[in-house]
Design a protein that fits this description.
570 residues, alpha+beta, BirA Bifunctional Protein, domain 2, YbaK protein, Rossmann fold, five-stranded mixed sheet, 31 strands, RNA-binding
RNA sequence: CGGGGUGUAGCUCAGGUGGUAGAGCGUCGGCUUUGGGAGCCGAAGGUCGGGGGUUCAAGUCCCCCCACCCCGACCA
């Protein structure tokens, strides 16, 4: 490809709206263009990358025995009503009607459709196991699209579905996909950790996430360097700690005017935040007040709280509700003088504490040195604390590490969550009718592109790993108006094409510095620089990933690059 | 959905107290230049996010709406 004719336009200015490196660089280097919030066009260079990612995924899926097909974008509402997700999926489901008033949605995931398809053809245990997948555009009307391709409302996803006759076989399918995912992320040159995860909206009995460590992810992983455990922090349970050994001091009421936050209180009374009993008032199902108590140095994980409450329909109480229910203000909510009807939950972190600072639902006052058993009584203990670095590993108790990451893949053992309500049954060898055991397996393809940039870039631009680079080599003719340079460049360009290299030839009428900067930004793994060294019959090869550079003769150049490219792709 | 912020040229931005819109980059024409985002000369390019209001006069003041970004809660 001649760059002078190629639809690839870079920008010198950083785009104002982008913050995450992948978002900024993909825009700046001309890979994507935003159309509206969370919706992007993928431009020719970007599409080359996407296709390479897809093909790596495709190859490993096929190797695992999966068969590719293509489901629909427009799903009829009836299927979603069969599983109850038409109601339960919420506002993230893009819903629309056709001219006759029939309801549809734009598929955010395809369990319903694939189950419908399979139940129409599969009736016997002889047809199982079965593994189907597609690479398809998906739609989710995200509350908050973010960071370019990292969380879009329209995105490309690979989703696979397994169908088995029994639990054991289903487990084998699940394990098979784990291995496939491991191979896929290695080939994509992504540093990914597999973590236990919650099943969430999709449902099922167990699930794992594949998370790439990045600063712009939204998943938090706790992992253990001692035993190898890894899990999404929202599912890591924290046990009650050992009781504190401390002499109980007499309780006192102290004046704490206008001291509202844990931090202010800690400073005002000169006590560590862990000595403060934090109380947070939630309103559940729009009416029931629930007070959650937790140690002052900890925060509530609302995913865990959701599991405890059994509903996602809860929120923090507002100032008025606090006033009406407790007769106080935020900052002075506590366990003393609690009115009837306020349910109280104690986080495990408060077990065995001594000499605590506690609010009493009276503005501007706190008790100090309150002790359980003497001054107040414990109630129901629950685990709702956010996991932080140093918390005990659920397997071996060693201190956990916690890092942010980006969820690239998620696999679920679904069981009969979909096959049961949709009556996807088969007949077993005994002639009995049973629901098919299912699993589902996603990889966010467009998100993978962003993750690769997050993990492979520097201040100058992207450093594409060779297997996913839009072009493997760029030929930079530093002075196209010089006949000799132009001729050599043309010759190298033809030779590279003949030898099967994916090559872009920068023949634009631009200065040398401009071309270097553009090549750095766009991130081609190799470049051949045709410049003044041509007088000695030499050109320079540069490797983007390492910055290494060396001169070779014009004759050798293409073969040398070809060798390095082949080595990278192994 | 809660909180914060921004909308002015293709891009990045400047435009006290109201007086009829600018810069740099990019684009186009010309000359010069070619190993790290070159220089000079000239030119084109704007419903100032949209609507309403106040005013002799609104990019600027007031009201409503929209879009986008960031933080929080949620998904690949």
């Amino acid at each position: 490809m001649r760059w002078s004719r190629y639809f690839l336009y870079t920008s010198k200015e950083d785009p104002a709206e982008a913050e995450a490196p992948s978002h900024r660089l993909l825009l700046k280097a001309g890979f994507i263009k935003q159309v509206s919030a969370g919706i992007y066009e993928i431009l020719p260079a970007g599409w080359r990358v996407i296709k390479k990612i897809e093909n790596i995924v495709r190859k490993e899926m096929d190797r695992s025995g999966a068969q590719e097909l293509l489901l629909t974008v427009l799903n009829p509402a009836e299927l979603w009503k069969e599983t109850g997700r038409w109601e339960s999926y919420g506002n993230e489901l893009f819903r629309l009607k056709d001219r006759n008033g029939r309801e549809y949605c734009l598929g955010p995931t395809h369990e319903e459709e694939i189950t419908d398809l399979v139940r129409k053809f599969v009736h016997s245990y002889r047809q199982l196991p079965l593994l189907l997948y597609q690479i398809q555009v998906k739609f989710r009307d995200e509350k908050r699209p973010r960071f370019g391709l990292i969380r879009g409302r329209e995105f490309i996803m690979k989703d696979a579905y397994s169908f088995d006759a029994d639990e054991f076989s289903a487990m084998m399918s699940y394990e098979n996909m784990k291995f496939a995912y491991d191979r896929i992320f290695k080939k994509l040159r992504l540093d990914v950790i597999m973590a236990q995860a919650s099943v969430g909206q999709i449902g099922g009995s167990q699930s794992h996430e594949f998370i790439a460590f990045t600063d712009y992810g939204e998943a938090k992983v706790g992992y253990c360097e001692n035993c190898g455990y890894a899990g999404n922090t929202e599912i890591i349970s924290l046990p009650k700690p050992d009781p504190q050994e401390e002499e109980e001091k007499p309780m006192e009421k102290v004046h704490t005017p206008n001291v509202r936050t844990i931090e202010e209180l800690s400073r005002f009374l000169n006590v560590h935040p862990s000595k403060i009993l934090k109380a947070v008032l939630y309103i559940v199902n729009a009416k029931d007040p629930v007070m959650v108590l937790i140690r002052g140095d900890r925060d509530i994980d609302e995913n865990k709280l959701e599991a405890v409450l059994g509903t996602e329909n809860f929120r923090l109480a507002d100032d008025k509700e606090v006033k009406d229910l407790l007769g106080t203000e935020k900052g002075f909510i506590g366990i003393f003088n609690l009115p009837e009807g306020v349910k109280v939950l104690w986080d495990n972190s408060l077990y065995g504490v001594k000499n605590m600072v506690v609010a009493l639902n009276e503005p501007d006052y706190h008790y100090v040195n309150a002790n359980p058993g003497r001054d107040f009584n414990y109630g129901k203990f629950v685990d709702v604390a956010q996991v932080v670095e140093g918390d005990p590993c659920p397997q071996c108790k060693s201190p956990l590490k916690v890092r942010k990451g980006l969820e690239l893949g998620h696999i679920f053992l679904l069981g009969t969550r979909y096959s049961d309500p949709m009556k996807a049954y088969f007949t077993d060898p005994e002639g009995k009718e049973k629901p098919i055991i299912m699993g589902c397996y996603g990889i966010g393809i467009s998100r993978v592109m962003a993750a690769i940039v997050e993990q492979h870039h520097d201040e100058k631009g992207i450093k594409w790993p060779t297997p996913v680079a839009p072009f493997e080599v760029a030929i930079l003719c530093l002075n196209p108006s010089d006949q000799e340079l132009a001729q050599v460049s043309e010759k190298l360009y033809l030779e590279a094409q003949e030898k099967g290299l994916e090559v872009i030839y920068d023949d634009r009428e631009e200065s040398a510095g401009f071309k270097f900067a553009d090549a750095d930004l766009v991130g081609f793994p190799y470049r051949i620089v045709v410049g003044k060294k041509i007088k000695e019959g030499k050109v320079e090869i540069q490797k983007r990933a390492t910055g290494e550079r060396f001169d070779v003769s014009v004759e050798e150049a293409i073969n040398r690059v070809k060798e390095m490219v082949e080595e990278d792709k192994k």
